[in-house]
Design a protein that fits this description.
6 helices; 186 residues; 3-stranded mixed β-sheet; 26% strand; alpha/beta
Length: 186
């Protein structure tokens, strides 16, 4: 049975995404029937990062300025050190992320991915996790940070690092299947 049949997932990323944090959740979502779309500020391809080196390129399906959150049911934000730092400086990407919260759609972010959530002003009052080096950034933005492999707060799924991908993937399938979360606030 396809748990995510007819679910469209935007994966927002740019050069420097952590390869496993994009590829493995994408594969898990597609296995359950979801349609996934790599969205980026760039056209063409973006390069991943793996074991401290540039890795394979992945095809971009659409530029972020060509789509809207209304085109999708859920949003996935892979980490990596470079990727979220570049995305949070792109105001179109920040607005795209914020619109998922305004429309109460589920969002998942892993590792350094929550950095763009801080820029979108959607972390205040939320319980979250992340890679430990951005703990203070999340706390300063009003989030309550916990050291757990996966945390769910009203449609927002967060995880710490690639070692948590099994738990993260299981939880994003569950939350993306549930769909909109009416109590979710921007």
């Amino acid at each position: 049975m396809s748990l995510l049949k007819d679910v469209r997932v935007a994966i927002l990323a740019t050069d420097g995404f952590e390869e496993s944090e994009l590829v493995e959740p994408k594969r898990a979502l597609e296995k359950e029937g979801a349609e996934t779309f790599v969205i980026s500020p760039e056209n063409g391809e973006i390069k991943g990062w793996k074991d401290g080196e540039w890795s394979d390129a992945i095809k971009v399906d659409a530029r972020v300025d060509q789509v809207s959150s209304t085109d999708f049911d859920a949003l996935l934000l892979p980490g990596g050190v470079i990727n979220p730092d570049k995305l949070r400086r792109d105001m179109t990407s920040v607005a795209f992320v914020k619109s998922f919260f305004e429309n109460h759609k589920p969002v998942a972010a892993i590792c350094h991915g929550p950095q763009i959530l801080i820029e979108a002003n959607v972390t205040n009052g939320r319980t979250m996790t992340s890679f430990p080096s951005i703990r203070k950034d999340l706390e300063n933005s009003g989030a309550s940070w916990v050291d757990e492999e996966v945390v769910v707060d009203n449609g927002l799924v967060t995880s710490r690092s690639p070692k948590d991908l099994a738990a993260f993937n299981k939880k994003i399938i569950e939350e993306f299947r549930e769909g909109k979360h009416d109590g979710q606030t921007a």
